[in-house]
Amino acid sequence: MTVEEIVKADWIRKNRLMALGYSVSIPAAILYSVLNGEHPLKVWIYSVSYAVFLSLYFILHVWLKWLKAFPYAAIFPLYTGMAVYAYFFAGSISAMLIILYLAVISSVHFRRPLFAIGYGYGFIALLINKIFAPGQDPVFDAAFGVAMLVYVLLGMVFLILIHLNRLQFRQLIRVLKDAEEEAEKKEKQKELLEQDILQIISRISKINGQVQKHMSAQNEMMQAVNEIAAGAASQNDQVVSIADHVSYATRRVEEMDRITKKVMERTSDSLSISKTGTEKMKEMEKTMGELAGIVQQLKQTFSTLAKKIEETNSFADNIQEIASQTNMLALNASIEAARAGDSGKGFSVVAAEIRNLAELTSQTANRINENLAGVNEVNLQTVKEMEQSGRMLDKSLAASASVSKFFVDLSGNLERLHAEFSQLMESVNNVKTDTGRIEGAAKEQAAVISESTAKLEEIRQVIEQLLKNHEEIAGDLLETNKSAENLQKLILAEE
């Protein structure tokens, strides 16, 4: 209840009290006058003043709600009626008592201006009652003196009471205003508290939503990390397998390098033998040229030698064929070297074929040696038959030239084969170097993947810890949200 409402209620109660006091006293005075047969003018004065009073009450208090105007307006008809009463019925003790009663009634509101007006009108009415009193009445004079003394004392008492009431009323108003301000302050604080609680609830809901999103994102991160870790582990196994294969290929390349070196050594030996044979054939050609003039008569013996030389020619054809195949094999070896890469199987096949061809060449050389031995025997016989060796010597010279040409061709082919094997060795060395690099890179990559896998495991553990922390935070937020809602319900219940 506000201060204005309290003041308004106070005016209403006091106006009603004032109306009740007059409504009891004046009708009682009218009844008393009628029963005692007093002058009708008294009844008329009482009636008119009471009628005016009631009219003012209903108009100002009830209808217009002019609560403060009513007591000031009501004083004038009442005291005017008493002044008329005192004028026409001067010297009346009852008039003095009525004036004292009116003074009491005028103090009901404890308003100093209102009491001063009523008190002043009463004092004038008392003087009128004294001035217009007929003759000398000792009883009236004594009563008048007492009445004046009582009136003055009553005025002082009511002034003191009004003053004290005003002080108390002001203190009450001040207390009420302070209470009202405190209530408004608490209401504002309550509204602010409700707003803060609503904001807290809203923010907690938002934070909880964000925490749930973070938890969902971290679960997805956990799944992604697990998938990455599984992929890294698989990749690590693959890289280790690649490193093992590269190591195996490296060993095979090293083995192929050793075999190629052996083939190179044998090719060099064959080349040296071929060159030596070429030189020997040239010497033999020279010797046979010198003998050409001597063995002209050995035609018959040289015919036998010619047959042997023909056989030697067939052997030379075989050697030529072998050289041709050796050339083809060398070409195949070059092709295999280009295609083989890290595989050494082709070189093993080529080396085996080269060894077979070397054996065939050795057999052919043995047969040539046997035939040369036969030629030597024939030459012994030819010495005996000098006459018949002329024609055979010419043929031998031609055959020796052909064999010499064969050895020259064979030496050229062997030199080319040696050069190609040199290139093959260089390629093998390059492959060996590259394979070593690949093996080292694979091992380094495997180490990096292993380290990455360990880091992924650490990240997974950190994400798990974050998930646990976020779950705890979500639980705390739910509890805080429940507490805020309970506090909000408590504030609404207090309203």
Largest sheet: none
Q: Total strand count, please?
A: 1
Please provide the ordered H/E string of secondary-structure elements. HHHHHHEHHH
The share of residues in extended strands comes to: under 5%
Distance between the termini: 15 Å
> What structural category do the secondary elements indicate?
mainly alpha
Envelope shape: rod-shaped
Q: Percentage of helical residues?
A: over 70%
Mean pLDDT: 78
Number of helices: 9
Over all CA atoms, what is the radius of gyration?
75 Å
List unreliable stretches of 5+ residues.
Answer: none
Provide an overview of this structure.
The radius of gyration is 75 Å and the shape is rod-shaped. It has helices at residues 3-36, 40-63, 69-88, 93-106, 112-131, 138-292, 299-340, 345-384, 389-494; one strand at 297-298. By secondary structure, it is mainly α. The longest helix has 155 residues, at 138-292. The model has no long low-confidence stretch (mean pLDDT 78). Helix content is 92%, strand content 0%.
